[in-house]
Amino acid sequence: MSESSRASAEVVYLEDLTVGAVFTSSEHKLDVEQIREFAQRFDPQPFHLDDEAAKDTFFAGLAASGWHTAAITMRLLVESLPFAEGVIGAGGEITWPRPTRPDDVLHVVSTVMEIAPSRSRPDRGIVVVQSDTLNQHGELCQRLVARLLAFRRA
User: Which end of the chain, C or N, has fewer beta carbons within 10 A?
Assistant: First the structure.
C-alpha cells in the first residue's frame, strides 16, 4: 500500500514513517471571493483586495496572501498527514516562490526528509517534512519545511 493510500486509511505513528515517504493531499480550488475575504480579515493590502490596484504592484495582478496559502496548506496537511495526535509543529521555514492566483487549484505533496526519535522522551520524535503546495500546472506556490512532533504507539 502506498503512503498516500495508507494516509487515508489509518493513523500514522513515528515507527510507521520512513525517510522518503510521500503523502499527497486532495485539492482546493481558490477563487476571487476567498482571496478577498481572507485579505479583508487578515491581510488587507491592495494586491489581495482589488484587481485594478493589484495590476500596478509587484504581483501584477490579484494574488492571495501568503498566509492564506499557508492556511489552505494546513487544511490539506491535516487531511493528508494522519499523524497520531495531529499535525503539531515544532518550527520550520516557509517560502512563497510564486503567487497563488484566483482559480488556482492547490494540492500538497509532503515528503518525509528526516526522522529523529527523542532521546529524552521515548514516546515521541521529530519528523522533518517538506510540504510543497502546487497549483494545477504543477508550479510551486509554497514550500514549507516543518519540524513536526510524531508520537510512538503506546
Answer: C
